[in-house]
User: Fold this.
Amino acid sequence: MNIFDALMAGCQKFITSLPNRCLLCHQQLCSAATGICHTCLQSCLYTSPVCLGCGRELQTLQRYCGACLALQPIPVIAPASYHSLLGPLIPKIKYQAQFTALPPLVLALERRLAMLVAHNLTVLPQALLPVPLHPHRLRERGFNQAWMIASMLGQKLQLPVVDNLLRRVVATVPQTGLDGRARRRNLRDAFMLTADLPYQRIALVDDVVTTGTTVDEIARTLAPWTPDLQVWCLARAEAPGM
Assistant:
């Protein structure tokens, strides 16, 4: 049994020992569902097209809004906004090991990806790259939620998960509460590659994308090897007013 199988088996054992209730509305779930009921999940998901660059709502299904079409930012694919009811739930996965929320959210992301691929708005990458934690943070937390999400998607989509080439070499302070300049300074040179990447198309996987500072710094690190980078996450935080 590999590390992922052992971790997920332990999570499943823990999950089955708990009352099967929705984490958002606390109503009883059917036996086949975990974490979030269908009604709550559907109320959180995007109901209209959104720009993959900035998250702005669009009138028609397309890759970018007018402003992002000119800038061509790194596309961020998520099934929902962080400003929905999912907002308070995402930190519970990270800080309280609320793993029951992962299966329905990963499934929602998988379906979002399938829709975008079907409409030629994105293509599947060659590999998945979870955002790494610093070894000290990983020991404290006991798991990396980005790695868990990437592993679940990798199994579903039959894509390799590359978790040994990108390292977090600086134990940065939490980004919460920092302004844009402080976030960039905090993450400067925080990541390094241990070897050349054998892939040109990579999806960087994380739980949430807020300002995009982490994405930008990793993209800078990967730039010599990976010209085609996209980001997959469970939720994204759009700028105010979007």
Notes: The radius of gyration is 18 Å. The mean pLDDT is 86. DSSP finds nine helices and six strands in the chain. The first strand starts at residue 76 and ends at 77.
